[in-house]
Predict the 3D structure of the following.
Amino acid sequence: MFPDIDFTELLDEEEGEEDYDEGNYTFKLDYETGEISRELIAGAKSVEQFSLLALRTPRFEHAIYSDQFGSELLSLIKEQNDVTPAFLSSEIERVVNEAIIYDDRVSDIEDVEVYYQDNNAHISFKIIVMGEVVDIEEVLELDV
């Protein structure tokens, strides 16, 4: 029923099989078209993709994902006028952490910041992944 894919065929030629770890590779997502490419990504790039997908996916809204995946970030940001800025800031940091930290490859999340411009919420933070620092910036459109 499901295709049998040989992942080693999709790796770049300069990568040897000795470096191949099926658990750390994932298909690259094209967020503009919503399609999954045949390109494989690994390491910090795959964690960055996981993080963005987790933040963009509303928790509990898609049966395909477990209740561990996703976040309440967008609904929280939309309530910005109903809560104090200090509360909102601490809740955004908590929600970002909860959405990402359970990935075993992530050792820490730092410097979570959010600001609002026009009809968008701009969120930035750093993820510590396998000794690397990955800067994440996300812009969420608010339906006001």
User: Anything to note?
Assistant: The chain is about 25% helix and 30% strand.
